[in-house]
């Protein structure tokens, strides 16, 4: 039976020692988030994750969701765990105080979410999407809508969805066919079919609030004619409580590779009553509020599955006895040595550790930006944080899920044949993780978003802002006694980042396909550089602690060893992406469709 | 519903145009394999694969095998398909004539196996393992054993297994606990538990012949004390027919990530009657005969799943309409363009095509070596073929499965959200393929076998032999008008291959861990070089055909485009492996176990 223990030591290392979350809370006036409270939140959510959610992960996968005539039943224990989550205030933790939230920092919310999601990703989808739905209503809803829905969504009494995809369109939302016809009372009659709706129907909460993209009868064609509607499963009554049943039903649930305990629904809207949110024909903008959060959350999925896979792979590698170390028996009293002595097993474990911890550093850095964007009193700070978030979001989503998937595949491999057997749990991490590079915009779409919209459309501004941080860090550490060669490497990569961007920009003026042809390799290159940046940041801190005579030396030495491994054995991949990228579009475009 | 159509045009390109199988058949006196007969075999087996086996692939996955009190029931239709396979002589095709086989070339057997395995890998496991079992008996059994068992195994009336793994040992067979006690009549009483036994029990054939590794009571410790036994489910009676039930029963079947229709059994031997095969304590050598075949077969699994995934991904990419080409609408009369116009979709499809076809070339090259090793009249030719097989087997097993898995993961990605839904079939290819890098010796073990046993222990001889072929090919094409830059690249890589080997050899004299630390990157580098070699071979042929005015120009232009793509966008990865390899063992070994 696989297990999950929240890696609090690693998490605190990043929160407290690398980034100093506490200082940020002070700056932003988040005075409720005292060190004691943060400690208590971490300890308690770690317990909830490992004791309540983790034990339901394998059983949830085996049992899956059941569908019967419009009714969806979640696996045994899911509903009770959700009730506990709501009752103990976890749902409301980082929600706004005026709607029943506790107003704790977004960054702390992300950290807690890492634990609940790692323990049981499928379960976590239900509250996860609710946060996205609530934030869209908060950003774009009327005061009345906020009061009506946020008071229910923020504490988790009701859950939320986002209904975008239709059978014939996912990426290309301009093609949607769902129609919203204005009614005399100011509401809309919504009709159409949405697919792949996570948590579209379930038995965990008393009501479900759907955010639905639809077109008015006279809407312009394409994405400029899309509006966003609130379509609750039960219409709120005069007291804001669950009232009359609305015309939206679940038609079926999907049979999936993984996250089987998360209900993925076909939702049929048949003259359902909907309420416009935001302006007519500006629905896509509203939806993006929700999607950016969801993209960060999906990036976290790569870390979450990677972490669980790593924990169990390390335990297995220390326990499984097989062959002798080539350097001579490590444990001569046993029939064989634990496989963690073998260099190739270490290669796999170190790859997992390096990607996971690099991803955590990236995620927590981004979490601090969320705090700045939400809470800073300084407009310039807020604007800069928004810019950095815009730049980092597609990288978090795509790089964290690409590497997360690689980590889970390695975590199976460490187990040998047992990795393929369901009871051991490693293969579920792969199946559950495999959706992350696909949904919330495929990683190919993230790459286009990064290179096309974020980097090139800003004339390189967003890249330069981040790149400057890297530059200042390198400059401050030039000729570093311990890490000199690594700082030189990072300095060179950082310069190359800008040069590559220039080259693509020039080429794309002659051939528009160059951006699409370069995008994925550009994103992966960016990810490797960013991990290098964060690994050096972590190494510098670890080195300082060791020099100060820390009593936790093994922990910091592990960080230094992993930083060396990352630079020597993973970072070389960055140049393969450069070469592929520089090959340009011709090698992709010369094939005619019938030659495939 | 996914489909599979045997890619006969591609297969014939490699068989006829790149390697000239027919000439080999003439040289080896395989006169039965006339061009007409080969044609008929290809056409008929393609039909059997796509019409009989492929339709059972999804249903077999959904239904899985059922276990009830020692009895295993395969999915609906499996038994009937197997009967057809036996009745139509497919089982016996490349088996020895003296035992009911048709004596057709091993290479043709491999090609036919590509089709049946691609159509339904789980089903193909049942006959697949039988071939391995039969070849071990043929190589090491007594005349009596051959007559008794091969007459049943070769035509497929009985099936075979290989029983190596036990709960506490897979890679480290020296630890096995199964015991074989000599009996007065010359037989042995075999007792122990074997796990992960593919086709250990099923309902498709009337008897099952287990080859079992066990230790005599007085056997030396470790791998030098292992003997091999034939343990049939039913003991043959005086007429060689199925007789008395033997003391071996299936205790349970595993719940797996994929190949669910293949029964993976726990087999309990309880004083079962076994017959020694080969010499006492030489069991591991006998088993290697079987394993080498199985390793090639497992390498093919990477190609098979990759091919199916590619076929369906191309069909989807031509059919699915989403967004417009950045170069302007490709199909303006439709609501959007097919996604095959987008460069990033092409990047994925071309990666799939390049790896699949490179893998097919490698596999068919190896198949020709099988013919030479089996049938050549010339001892030197046979010895050289054996050497090359020894060298290429771990590369086929590991590189073809690593890349095959990558291909199936991309094949899911092309489908977007639909890739995650079981009905579409793409995710099954990933799940089924995922076992291939693990079983028959993990890819890490293959890498050690390649670098340690094959390359370094032969003092580089086996590598030099292959490398010389590459060298001669490059030399003959130096300054090639069309492919000059690619030949330069291959020449450089070929030289680097030898230099890397030297470096590791020198380092390993000081630190034994260097071989293990370098092995996986060395194997991957080797695979990329070998693919580059075969892609240039294919490109040269395609270019010649185009210059000769072939009417099949689109086909050959596709080959040229894919060769360019491979060199420009995939081959750069080789240098990342070089850098990682050259980083050496220290970055892996400095972590203490508790720092993980």
Automatic annotation (TrEMBL), chains A, B:
This protein's name: 3-methylmercaptopropionyl-CoA dehydrogenase
The molecular function terms in GO held by this entry are:
flavin adenine dinucleotide binding; oxidoreductase activity, acting on the CH-CH group of donors
Instruction: Kindly list the cofactors needed.
Output: FAD
Reaction it catalyzes: 3-(methylsulfanyl)propanoyl-CoA + oxidized [electron-transfer flavoprotein] + H(+) = 3-(methylsulfanyl)acryloyl-CoA + reduced [electron-transfer flavoprotein]
Domain Acyl-CoA oxidase/dehydrogenase middle: residue ranges = 162-270
Identify the EC number(s).
1.3.99.41
Establish whether keyword Ligase is in the entry.
Answer: no
**Which species is this record about?**
Halopseudomonas bauzanensis
